[in-house]
């Protein structure tokens, strides 16, 4: 391929874009065929194509940073387990190793080799979350990874076209929901098959015998583009820290970001040690979200692949909360890992010309709600057996030029599971799901709002909450003079406050009450435009009392009549 020819350059760009469409169709196949609502409704997945050395060439638009960026490293481990010269057409490989996959046992990673006329040309990989993998359930109460569920080492899911029925039987036998577990795993294999088929079609269309030249072009161009962006930053070392709730004791996350020689290195030395509970983070997952914190601000328009990721290095001390070692419990690793972009933003905010948003809720407020035992309650009615993962979100931090997004999952990017889906597959009823006024931090740009949610069991039976929630004791912090966002809350309608972590029972007849945190504000409240404040009041996003408290100077004398309207 003559890359000096304008025609060749255009054709290369077309093929690059075509690869992205191939992996997006791969991802959408997973969305359409998955059994778990968190995959088909929320998009909690990843999909990508890799060269035969394990370098990610392209990723699907649909997917989460935690899955995509950790999967980018995971494929190399598959090649170690199954060298490319041993791969055969019809093979499919699988693991849920937290340290060589995406961070906990509930995520399955599946890799499929792609062959053109008998020659290996690429690898397709995908990841999704299974609703149940056995053990004590999806929560942070495990004392080690053994308690957290079934571990699948690097194995052949399909061997030259023949499904590994023994592995499927083991998977079914270790899940409370065997049909869903089998269906989700097979949907992963199916989505890779679509990727393989579309890639081969593309290669035949463009008369390609190999992806090597195209992969090298994509990866090198992406690497150079990110390096140019980094070169525009002043060399230096920048340090930031954040304290979050943890489980039983607060957790300190400390980062030192070094800009030097067209690279960015992030070191988490100084962060807390490992937790005895399942909020520990394997290094691959910490690397995934810390890298994402850089990429959304530095060269964000450059596609994500092995090249654009390579100038960013992330380290953490061995046996720390961000580099937990086996057999540490890691089931709820997202609670800590999804905080890392905000920590990185704290470093980047010190660099002239870089303006990250204020802190937000960051971690997902996933409501894992279960009743594993069918039974008859006191009135003689039968209670249903169910397990649901209701993805909920808080407010995002305000940006330098825009208010924060309300009820938005940043940095994970997943969507909330619709109420109608949860109410269809379980006896749960959402009595309330609404934005939470006054939860966004005041500022020139206001933080996004959290939510207020109230849930009851229509069976009038107990149900369990596997709580893995944060920002209850430590609110999202404002930036550049903006105010903090509101802290979160979890409790019962009867008045009892519940813990942010751990399995707890919601008694029959009572209701679970959730208030997700709000995003923090950006810039002094005195600089907020009167028109924006008036809109907030008119739309009920802030109360008259909060306006008086936070924007008193702005209300005088012009907007006083707006408060009176309320």
Word description of this protein:
- The protein has helices at 6-33, 37-40, 65-81, 165-173, 178-205, 212-231, 283-295, 306-309, 334-337, 340-348, 419-425, 530-538, 544-550, 552-565; strands at 45-50, 56-59, 92-95, 107-116, 119-129, 155-159, 162-163, 236-244, 251-260, 263-267, 312-315, 367-371, 375-376, 382-383, 386-390, 428-435, 451-457, 463-468, 489-492, 501-506, 512-515.
- The protein is an alpha+beta fold and 566 residues long.
- The strands form 5 sheets. A 7-stranded antiparallel β-sheet has the order 2-1-5-4-3-6-7, with helices on both faces.
- Helix 3 (65-81) packs across helix 7 (283-295), helix 4 (165-173) packs across helix 5 (178-205) and helix 13 (544-550) runs antiparallel to helix 14 (552-565).
- The termini are far apart.
């Amino acid at each position: 391929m003559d890359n000096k020819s304008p025609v060749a350059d255009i054709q290369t760009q077309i093929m690059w874009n075509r690869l992205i469409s191939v992996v997006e169709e791969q991802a959408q196949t997973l969305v359409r065929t998955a059994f778990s609502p968190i995959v088909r409704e929320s998009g909690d997945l990843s999909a990508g194509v890799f060269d035969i050395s394990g370098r990610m060439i392209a990723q699907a638009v649909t997917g989460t940073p935690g899955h995509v960026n950790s999967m980018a490293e995971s494929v190399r481990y598959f090649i170690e387990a199954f060298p490319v010269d041993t791969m055969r057409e019809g093979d499919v490989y699988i693991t849920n190793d937290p340290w060589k996959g995406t961070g906990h046992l509930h995520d399955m990673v599946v890799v499929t080799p792609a062959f053109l006329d008998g020659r290996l040309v690429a690898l397709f990989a995908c990841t999704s979350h299974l609703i149940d993998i056995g053990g004590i359930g999806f929560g942070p109460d495990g004392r080690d990874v053994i308690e957290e569920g079934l571990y699948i080492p690097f194995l052949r899911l399909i061997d030259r076209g023949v499904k590994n029925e023994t592995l499927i039987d083991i998977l079914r036998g270790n899940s409370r929901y065997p049909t869903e577990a089998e269906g989700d795993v097979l949907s992963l294999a199916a989505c890779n098959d679509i990727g393989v088929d579309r890639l081969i079609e593309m290669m035949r269309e463009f008369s390609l015998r190999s992806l090597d030249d195209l992969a090298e072009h994509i990866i090198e161009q992406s690497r150079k583009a990110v390096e140019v962006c980094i070169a525009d930053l002043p060399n230096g070392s920048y340090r930031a820290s954040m304290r979050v709730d943890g489980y039983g004791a607060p957790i300190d996350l400390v980062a030192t970001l070094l800009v030097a020689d067209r690279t960015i290195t992030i070191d988490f030395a100084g962060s807390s040690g490992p937790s005895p509970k399942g909020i520990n983070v394997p290094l691959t997952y910490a690397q995934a979200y810390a890298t994402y914190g850089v990429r959304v601000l530095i060269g964000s328009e450059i596609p994500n692949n092995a090249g654009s990721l390579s100038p960013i290095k992330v380290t953490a001390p061995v046996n720390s909360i961000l580099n937990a070692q086996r057999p540490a419990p890691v089931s709820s690793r997202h609670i800590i890992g999804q905080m890392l972009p905000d920590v990185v933003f704290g470093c980047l905010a010190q660099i002239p010309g870089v303006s990250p948003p204020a802190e937000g809720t960051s971690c997902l407020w996933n409501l894992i709600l279960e009743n594993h035992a069918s039974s008859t309650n006191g009135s003689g009615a039968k209670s249903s057996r169910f397990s649901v993962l209701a993805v909920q979100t808080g407010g995002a931090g305000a940006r330098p030029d825009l208010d924060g997004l309300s009820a938005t999952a940043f940095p994970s990017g997943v969507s909330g599971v619709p109420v109608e889906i949860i109410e269809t597959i379980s006896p749960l009823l959402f009595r309330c799901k609404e934005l939470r006024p006054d939860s966004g931090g005041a500022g020139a740009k206001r933080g996004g709002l959290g939510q207020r949610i109230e849930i009851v069991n229509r069976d009038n039976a107990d149900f369990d909450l596997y709580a893995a929630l944060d920002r209850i004791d430590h609110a999202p912090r404002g930036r550049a003079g903006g105010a903090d966002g509101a802290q979160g809350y979890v409790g019962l309608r009867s008045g009892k406050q519940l813990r942010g972590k751990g399995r707890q029972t919601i008694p029959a007849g009572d209701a679970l009450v959730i208030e997700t945190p709000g995003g923090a504000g950006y810039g002094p409240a005195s600089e907020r435009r009167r028109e924006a404040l008036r809109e907030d009041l008119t739309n009920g996003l802030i109360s008259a009392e909060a306006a008086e408290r936070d924007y008193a100077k702005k209300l005088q004398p012009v907007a006083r009549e707006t408060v009176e309207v309320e």
